[in-house]
Write a structure and sequence with these properties.
The protein has 122 residues and is mainly alpha-helical. 64% of the residues lie in helices and 0% in strands. It has five helices and no strands. The longest helix is centred in the middle third of the chain and has 23 residues.
């Protein structure tokens, strides 16, 4: 008579995918969309989550500036906010799943901004 095969115990954490963190309170529609889209693709550590949160808040500021009009002060502030968003997204250094080569952080940020802009128009 043979002995029964050993049963492999799989830890509970290995059976269920990690839960995505909830979007921070106070985010607008654009910020929540960025939060969901990024976390649907990537797992992040607490420091990266903080950078993502700030990125989402900048997206919301840009949305508010778009609604405010096109005066010189608004355009200047929008330009500063876009630059801040570019830097924040670049600091996350997210890989680009569409390209087989490693993109520069500048192209990654530009692509993320373009995608966010196109998604907003849809």
């Amino acid at each position: 008579m043979s002995t029964p095969a050993a049963v492999l115990e799989v830890p509970e954490t290995a059976r269920t995918p990690p839960r995505r963190p909830r979007a921070p309170t106070g985010l607008g529609a654009g910020g929540k969309r960025l939060w969901r889209e990024v976390l649907a693709l990537y797992e992040m550590n607490p420091g990266e989550l903080r950078i993502l949160e700030e990125s989402c808040r900048v997206v919301d500021v840009l949305d508010e500036l778009r609604e405010a009009g096109h005066g010189p002060e608004i355009l200047r502030e929008a330009r500063l906010q876009r630059e801040m968003l570019r830097k924040l997204l670049a600091s996350l250094d997210l890989p680009d799943e569409d390209e087989p080569t490693l993109p520069s952080s500048r192209s990654t940020a530009a692509r993320a901004l373009a995608k966010a802009r196109w998604h907003r128009r849809a």
